[in-house]
Amino acid sequence: MNYFSSCFLEAVPRALVPVTAGDGAVHTPLLVRDEQGDVLERLDVVLRNIAELRKEVEELRNSLQHLAVEIVGEVRSHLEETQKVTRRRRFPFPRERSDSTGSSSIYFTASSGAANTDDGESEGGYTTANAESDYDRESERESEEGEDEVSCETVRTVRRDSLDLVNEDETHLILDSSLEEGLGQLLQQADRLHDGDEQEKREGFQLLLNNKLAYADQKDFLWRLARAHSDMCDITEDADEKRSYASDGKEEIEVALQKWDRSAECHQWFAVLCGQLAEHESIQKRIQAGYVFKEHIDKAIELKPDDPKSYYLLGRWCYQVAHLGWLEKKTAAALFEAPPTATVQDALQNFLRVEELSPGFSKAGRVYIAKCYRDMGNNTAAVLWMNLASELPANTKEDAESERELEELRSVWEE
Question: What are the start and end residues of every segment in region (Disordered) (predicted)?
Answer without folding.
Answer: 83-153, 396-415
